[in-house]
Amino acid sequence: MKLYHTIAGWFAEDGGTLRRLPDTFGLDELLSIDDAGSRLKDQFELGRQFDELPALAAPIQSQEVWAAGVTYWRSRTARIKESKDAGGGSFYDRVYDAARPELFFKSSPHRVVGTNQPIRIRSDSKWNVPEPELTLVVSSAGKIVGYTIGNDVSSRDIEGENPLYLPQAKVYVGSCALGPGILIQSEPLDPQTQIKLRIRRDGRMVFEGNTTLSQMRRQPQDLVDYLFRDNAFPAGCFLMTGTGIVPGDDFTLRAGDEVSIEIDPIGRLVNTVA
């Protein structure tokens, strides 16, 4: 079953049937109980049937968004290269092999945009890239209950200048996109599931890349377990799992670029750079 947040409220789709969920439904409630799948099915049966979705919003309520880094070999290599002048390469190398992952705060809800909404690049940065990531939807009990697509927009020159600048490179308005909806599913996705990134500029393709979940160094539940150590998320949270697709050093996002990230069976997240 897929869950969507729209300008008219929450909708769910199951077996080709689309229904608007009761007004009392919210993601906070869904992620605060043990069996999210059963609860959503109950709400689905109470919903009113619709023919098509209204305009989509980011599928988030009051959840924080966190992220994991250096979970793919490609991201490890890129982070070492961008930070070599600042002397940070060695610890990016070490964290790739360490038991403890890199986890960092990415966004509060008001900074998150949904599909077909604009993402932003920093005005004080000259090297900005999208980071397409499988994003885990996690209950308050630390259980993965679903999946969505995330774009962890990042300023690589700011982070590369000094690793202590990571929050400034990662956390700002419009730097986080989620959507188009949430696939409610407790079972892990197939390791051969593809993540596809396409970037178009003035109608032509300027970058495309693919990877699969099998290339991820860490298991999703392991990342969640570390995130929940000595931490609490009463309404659940989102956890981006890192990127395995990194454009070349000569590429930077520009205003007007269209960024498309596709993960089957979740869907397609599309944003234009403001």
Write the layout of secondary structure elements.
Elements: E1 2-6, E2 9-14, E3 17-20, H1 27-30, H2 36-46, E4 48-50, E5 64-69, H3 73-83, H4 89-97, E6 102-107, E7 112-113, E8 128-129, E9 132-138, E10 144-152, E11 154-155, H5 156-161, H6 166-170, E12 176-184, E13 194-201, E14 204-212, H7 220-227, E15 237-240, E16 258-263, E17 267-272
Parallel strand pairs: 5-15, 7-12
Antiparallel strand pairs: 1-2, 1-12, 2-3, 3-4, 5-6, 8-11, 9-10, 9-15, 10-12, 13-14, 13-16, 16-17
Mean pLDDT: 93
Structural class: alpha+beta
What is the CATH topology classification name of the largest domain? Fumarylacetoacetate hydrolase, domain 2
Biggest sheet layout: 11 strands, mixed
Query: What coarse outline follows from CA principal-axis ratios?
Result: globular
Summarize the structure.
With 274 residues, the chain is α+β, with helices and mostly antiparallel strands. The chain has seven helices and 17 strands. The protein has two domains: 2-50, no CATH class; 64-272, Fumarylacetoacetate hydrolase, domain 2 (Alpha-Beta Complex).
